[in-house]
Write a structure and sequence with these properties.
The chain is of the alpha/beta class and about 600 residues long. About 60% of the residues lie in helices and about 10% in strands. It has a 9-stranded mixed beta sheet, with helices on both faces. Helix 11 crosses helix 22 and helix 17 packs antiparallel against helix 20.
């Protein structure tokens, strides 16, 4: 059964592959990485960090040299395999390549560092991820950080000291980070860079493990017992002494397994450290860290599980939002298209019927815009005294009217009624633009459509085409209403008007009486009264025509022609319509991978968390 550390290693690795590490766009994913405990290796330059790591792994694999060698964080995940199994290493950026020659691992670390920073002494916070599988390691995650320094050397920026410290702090400040503070024994512990920064971020020492290197290089007659026994600087965990390979051993390529044996012999035979021999050395350090890391993981299981469950809920919600992959057969694709159309139509109808905002704007056209347009019609100019005289006189011709100027009346009324065509057409156009805007909003609010930009465009084109047809029909109908008013006048209205009857015996009135201003004013007033009657009628009938021809049709048959066209398309054409946004497809794949990872992690944590 897999250990908790091995499981956490896999979760961390998978999180990194899926982009959850280092600035992911989802806080929960980033929090999951931070909730997984790991060990950060901290020390000054030339403190022996690299040698400690190589001693724990049992392999030469890290770049060496003077000055700053580690210029990017190295996330090192150790996986214990069965005895006799072949050792190998894998880089996250080269997932299908196994390294069995560890000198090539060293070269690749250097090359990968140079790819990002160039062949300079610049640093980068972007980590390199390396996994090593070996029967000679314990399950452990270690993060090798650039060595702390006090001054910038040639080729480094002036702020390199602060940059390195900021990078180191970004790891060790996390409450789930275990600090492995490396200090050389041949220097005063009070000046240790690693202890200084560990004390600041972990004042209680609960997360800090102290490691003393170079014990064999101390001056004769001196030892580090004050530190190793916790009298000089006490931590919650015991100090561990390490004896690394000498430069001569490195030059001779002394095997790490041999070096481990020499280290054991050193402590066993040392008169100063013999009584601590069973708690010294790189092998003991690796086991100590592994045991502590597993205990920390076990204590963090509830919070880790909670974060995983939260991630699963968010991912399942996002997968529902993104939609499932589209089937390849034409029948399933046609069904998907129809479902998309129904989803759009449902939202569009909600806008019209009041479930969503927007439909009230149509009522505003009828209740405010149309009446305002009718009130602004220039009847006062058309029925002015001067124009009434002119129209009536022209209508009489060479024979003046005897009683009432009927032709004059008809011409004045017909001229007035023609003004109603403008508000009628304007009402149709106003509702058309409201419907177009509601279609646009409905498409934008139909989440299912976001997957298919091609289909969105075709749907928008089809709806606009349908709305244009409805607009043309609306204009024809509303203009017919105006024309009908012109084609037949309401006779009863004029029969009720008081007639002008001459009181004199002479049947022919005088020229003065026939063309008196009062006579023409009454004509203009009568026509205006009739136009007011027609205006009231059209104010009621134009909205009915617009709703019938445009709004009702939009609700009932907006996509009828589109459905007919879709039914004629072949499978390839349907596939082209359902051509998804590549970014969305990639996002779905990422979510699916994350979801699979987190569900597997949850199940495996449940299966191993109670194993002692």
């Amino acid at each position: 059964m897999e250990s908790l550390i091995g499981l956490v290693n896999r979760i961390q690795r998978a999180c990194t592959v899926l982009g959850d590490y280092g600035g992911a766009d989802n806080d929960t994913f980033s929090s999951l990485w931070e909730a997984l405990p790991s060990v950060a290796v901290v020390g000054g330059q030339s403190s022996g960090k690299s040698s400690v790591l190589e001693s724990i792994v049992g392999r030469d694999f890290l770049p060496r040299g003077s000055g700053i060698v580690t210029r990017r964080p190295l996330v090192l995940q150790l996986h214990k395999i069965e005895s006799g199994g072949q050792e190998y290493a894998e880089f996250l950026h080269l997932p299908r390549r196994k390294f069995t020659d560890f000198s090539l691992v060293r070269t690749e670390i250097q090359d990968e560092t140079d790819r990002l920073t160039g062949k300079t002494k610049q640093i980068s916070p972007i980590p390199i991820h390396l996994s090593i599988y070996s029967p000679n390691v314990v399950n452990l995650t270690l993060i090798d950080l650039p060595g702390l320094t006090k001054v910038a050397v040639e080729g480094q920026p002036e702020n390199i000291v602060q940059e390195i410290e900021t990078m180191v702090r970004s790891y060790v400040e996390k409450p789930n980070c275990i600090i492995l503070a490396i200090s050389p024994a041949n220097q005063d512990i009070a000046t240790s860079d690693a202890i200084k920064i560990a004390r600041e971020v972990d004042p209680s020492g609960e997360r800090t493990f102290g490691v003393l290197t170079k014990l064999d290089l101390m001056d004769k007659g001196t030892n580090a017992l004050e530190v190793l026994e916790g009298r000089s600087y006490r931590l919650q965990h015991p100090w561990v002494g390490i004896v690394n390979r000498s430069q001569a051993d490195i030059n001779k390529n002394v095997d790490m397994i041999v070096a481990r044996r020499k280290e054991r012999e050193y402590f066993t035979t040392s008169p100063d450290y013999g009584h601590l021999a069973n708690k010294m050395g790189s092998e003991y350090l690796a086991k100590l860290l592994s045991q502590h890391l597993e205990s920390v993981i076990r204590a963090r299981i509830p919070s880790i599980t909670s974060l995983i469950n939260k991630s699963i809920e968010e991912l399942e919600s996002e997968m529902d939002h993104l939609g499932r992959p589209i089937a390849l057969d034409a029948g399933a694709q046609l069904y998907t298209i129809l479902e998309l159309c129904r989803a759009f139509e449902r939202i569009f109808k909600e806008h019209l019927d009041g479930g969503r905002p927007g439909g009230d704007r149509i009522y505003n056209v009828f209740d405010n815009q149309l009446p305002a347009a009718l009130r602004k019609l220039p009847f006062d100019r058309h029925l002015s005294l001067q124009n009434v005289k002119k129209v009536v006189s022209e209508a009489d011709g060479y024979q003046p009217h005897l009683i009432a100027p009927e032709q004059g009346y008809r011409r004045l009324i017909e001229g007035s009624l023609s003004y109603f065509r403008g508000p009628a057409e304007a009402s149709v156009d106003a509702v058309h633009f409201v419907l177009k805007e509601l279609v646009r909003k409905s498409i934008a609010e139909t989440k299912e459509l976001k997957r298919f930009p091609t289909f969105q465009a075709e749907l928008a084109a089809a709806t606009n085409e349908a709305l244009e047809r409805f607009r043309e029909e609306g204009k024809k109908t509303t203009l017919r209403l105006v024309d009908m008013e012109s084609s037949y006048l309401t006779v009863e209205f004029f029969r009720r008007l008081p007639q002008e009857v001459e009181k004199t015996a002479n049947p022919a009135p005088s020229n003065v009486d026939r063309y008196a201003e009062g006579h023409f004013r009454r004509i203009g007033s009568n026509v205006l009264s009739y136009i007011g009657l027609v205006s009231d009628t059209l104010r009621n009938t134009i909205p009915k025509a617009v709703v019938y021809c445009q709004v009702r049709q939009a609700k009932q048959s907006l996509l009828s022609h589109f459905y007919t066209q879709i039914g004629k398309k072949e499978g390839k054409q349907l596939s082209q319509m359902l051509d998804e946004d590549p970014a969305l497809m990639e996002r779905r794949q990422q979510c699916a991978k994350r979801l699979e990872l987190y569900k597997a992690a949850r199940d495996e944590i449940d299966s191993v968390s109670w194993v002692r």
